[in-house]
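Researcher: Here's a chain I'd like modeled. Treat it as a single chain, no partners, no ligands.
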Amino acid sequence: MRENPYSGKEAAQLAYAGDNFIRYSGEALDVAKREVFAWEAGERGNSSAHFQANPTQTALMYGEFKQKKDTLQDSRKQAVLSKYGGEEHLQAPPRELLQQVEHYVEYSRTGKVVSGAEKPAVGTRFKEDVHPLNHSTVYGSWWSDGKWGYKCCQQFPRNAYCTAGALDK
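Model: Modeled as a single isolated chain. Structure tokens:
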């Protein structure tokens, strides 16, 4: 049985997680890389690199190979950067800039929005939240006897000065 029979549970709670669990944990990947290194070294003519016959020697050779490979990559990188520049582009951008937003907008040939974008609120030619003549409400906020007026002072004339303070006294 190679698959996990308890795939719905967490790995820490399982007594048995299948045969493949061992293949991808611990040093299994590193051992596989060393074995591939020994095969490739044998193909190149290095007969002393045998994974099963000389595992310690193969591990040491693999360590040297990785170290030389890393230094070679670093020297190539530095050579390219010294020749062409661009060190500022090696820094990763902040994670805030990498966030994805699903905002799809479709445009016509003339450049007008066809679909996708919200249309902006239509502005009016009238000023909003302006209460003239000391009123605290707008005209038409009070209805009585078939007439509209101001709710704050309960007056019907549109040009009447607010007397709400006089009503409170």
